[in-house]
Write a structure and sequence with these properties.
The structure holds two protein chains of two kinds. By secondary structure, chain A is an all-alpha fold. In chain A, about 80% of the residues lie in helices and about 0% in strands. Chain B contains 22 helices and two strands. The chains are: A mainly alpha, B mainly alpha.
Chain lengths: ~160, ~500
């Protein structure tokens, strides 16, 4: 089997690890040895390995090219928009859930998610989103009594439950 | 315990079928849902269990507890999302089997391994309770450091394909696992200024991010989980017949010993207070791979990998109750909740429980035994239908998995912040997937890192910094020898294969 072409994309995780380790070592610099011993040992090993990977990868890229080639992260192109769309929707959902509440927030996010993923038919998208959002709201907030943020849907639901009692 | 007492207890527990069955069903559902576990469910149900007679409450709680361990393996196999941290190791071979169109086979394997390892661990516990409770006293921080190393060596095993990449992933996970306050001085480390990280990185959001969100983002490029397009050549989607169910039964019967010993690994680890299913399943998986004649098949859909992970995961259940019943020390957070119920009813935990109230003390384990028997009847017929989840197109699955699991990330600590953690780990998981850094190695580091550090620092504090403490007890030395053997055997085997190669 032909070996895969080394690209800069493969350096993302080592660089993340290196950045985090540097920050960790900085954050424990003034602490007692018990608080930092494990981190210093593991962090030092990690730095050595990341350096080894950087050298290995650098040599491979020098031979075959691939500098600044991050395409491995974005391929296949037709799925890229779906992924970015789903990420954006999820971040927006988490950011707005304290105001919209679980029920409404999840319904909107699911509907947007299905649309981004290419599910056809507005009625179908809205119906599936409604069923899942309703099931999750009932499960998490009513049955499991989780303290997920409440919005207009949950307020209405609890009002109805109180009146029913 | 005499046979007469066993018979009486078995009959009495059988009469509680009406409370065991709902416990099993609820447990399977709770185990299936990432973010929910037996502990938080039992806390929510405390008003109910406190109001029940203690025997009823315990039958309900133990059946729910055992069933969550079984239920956690279902999403781990079908969509690579471990329902509980203990099922994380199940994804390593369970999900590849699903991708090969053998989801039903993997599910049944996992059910057989779960039920029978749980049953065996339970029987051994009933037969050897006094000795097992003493074992908990002998396994201290020194011995636990070595047991943790068994689990951590799995990082090196996973790294065998590309050693440097695998070790970077594992060590990165260990570093992430050290976020939060240290175990001695409570000094914050690498918390980015977030108070929410003072307790460390929460395991469930990290698990959801690395596996569920990361994998769902990967799924976006496929139409179905198993194979390619529906009906495409070479795609054999499970769920149409009972064939895979019977095949898994036959396979399990042929490898019964594998179920037994991985269950016993789980039992021993479960006895140690603070150790849990995630450690047990990784250690059992690592040992299974180490001693296998075909270790290279692990991680690609090796059925024994599923058996080992689930055997370890479910063998723990009886073990965690041993220190609680025999010593009055809860073996885990779930048994701590159970202890609240017992204390509420005026029961005193410890050695006297077995002489003063043997009906309750042994009844708990007999009830557990019965729960496993009921589980067989409940879960096996469902495997065929559960495996059909892989027939749902990813256009539906991706939004549902990402959004619902991100909501579930909230459940463990009830912080919206944790939903953000799931997203961050999801991005890390996706990049790791795409660039072939093993996500499981990162997770092993995140799971085992903090526990390893806790025992390591505790042992070193006891010895005032002298590392010779790790070789100061016969049990620890025995464990070191076993660790060395289990690391050397694959090397020796590879050397033998190399030696034989020119002759053939």
């Amino acid at each position: 089997m032909q070996s895969r072409r080394a690209t800069a994309a493969e350096l993302v995780i080592p660089l993340l690890a290196l950045g985090f380790t540097t920050y960790f070592l900085y954050s424990v610099s003034g602490l007692e040895w018990e608080a930092k011993a494990n981190g210093v040992i593991v962090g030092s090993l990690l730095i050595v390995l990341v350096c080894a990977q950087l050298v290995r990868q650098g040599m491979a890229m020098a031979r075959r090219g691939g500098w600044l080639d991050f395409t491995a992260l974005f391929e296949p192109r037709d799925a890229l928009l779906k992924r970015l769309g789903m990420l954006a929707i999820t971040i927006a959902f988490v950011a707005t859930v304290p105001w919209l509440g679980l029920g409404l927030g999840l319904f909107i996010a699911l509907a947007a998610g299905f649309a981004v993923m290419g599910v056809h038919g507005v009625k179908h998208v809205l119906l599936v989103s409604f069923i899942i959002a309703a099931a999750c709201t009932l499960l998490f907030t009513v049955a499991l009594d989780s303290s997920l943020p409440r919005g207009p849907v949950e307020d209405l639901l609890f009002l109805l439950l109180r009146q029913a009692r | 315990m005499t046979w007469d007492l066993f018979g009486q207890l078995f009959t009495a527990q059988l009469g509680l079928w009406w409370i065991i069955w709902p416990g099993i069903l609820l447990g399977i559902v709770v185990g299936f849902l990432p973010g929910f576990n037996a502990e938080n469910t039992l806390i929510m149900l405390l008003p109910l269990t406190l109001a029940m007679p203690v025997e009823h409450a315990f039958a309900f709680m133990t059946s729910l507890y055992c069933a969550t361990h079984l239920g956690g393996g279902i999403p781990a196999i079908l969509v690579r999302i471990p329902g509980t941290p203990g099922a994380a190791a199940t994804t390593l071979d369970g999900y590849p089997l699903t991708q090969q169109g053998r989801g039903q086979f993997a599910l049944v394997l996992s059910f057989v391994a779960s039920v029978f390892s749980g049953l065996i661990a339970c029987l051994v516990t009933i037969a050897m309770l006094p000795w097992l409770s003493a074992m908990g006293l002998y396994l201290r921080s020194v011995e636990m450091v070595v047991i943790m190393l068994f689990g951590l060596t799995l990082i090196a095993v996973i790294a065998s394909k590309d050693t440097v990449k695998g070790l970077i992933a594992g060590l990165f996970g260990l570093m992430i696992g050290m976020i939060g306050t240290d175990h001695i001085y409570n000094a914050p480390r690498a918390t980015f200024g977030f108070l929410e990280l003072y307790d460390g990185v929460p395991l469930v959001p990290a698990l959801i991010g690395l596996f569920a969100v990361g994998e769902a983002l990967m799924m976006a490029e496929r139409k179905l989980i198993a194979g390619g397009a529906p009906g495409a050549a070479g795609t054999r989607v499970s769920g149409h017949d009972w064939g895979q169910t019977f095949e898994a039964f036959r396979y399990s019967v042929r490898h019964w010993w594998h179920i037994v010993w991985t269950g016993l690994v789980g039992l021993v680890i479960g006895i140690v207070p603070g150790a849990g299913a995630s450690i047990a399943s990784f250690v059992a998986y690592q040992q299974s791979r180490m001693w296998s004649k075909e270790p290279e098949k692990y991680g690609t859909g090796e059925p024994k990998g599923v058996i080992a992970a689930e055997g370890g995961n479910n063998g723990v259940c009886s073990g965690t109750l041993v220190p609680m019943m025999a010593l009055g020390v809860p073996g885990g957070s779930t048994s701590a909740v159970m202890m609240i119920v017992l204390q509420y009813h005026g029961m005193t935990m410890g050695p006297t429980l077995f002489s003063e109230n043997p009906q309750l003390a042994y009844g708990v384990f007999v009830g557990m035994l019965l729960s496993y028997l009921f589980m067989i009847l409940t879960i096996f017929p469902l495997a065929r239908y559960m495996s059909r989840i892989v027939l749902i197109e990813t256009t539906y699955l991706v939004p549902i998995i990402i959004l619902v699991t991100v909501v579930a990330a909230f459940s463990e600590r009830q912080y919206v912040f944790d939903m953000g953690i799931a997203i961050v780990f999801g991005i890390i998981g996706y990049i790791a997937h795409k660039t072939e850094y093993h996500v499981a190695a990162i997770l092993i580091g995140v799971v085992l890192g903090p526990i390893f550090e806790k025992y390591l620092v505790r042992a070193l504090r006891l010895s005032e910094g002298d590392p010779r403490i790790f070789f100061s007890s016969p049990i620890a030395n025995g464990l070191w020898a076993l660790l060395a053997i289990s690391l050397l055997v694959p090397v020796f085997r590879a050397w033998r294969v190399k030696q034989k190669a020119p002759a053939t």
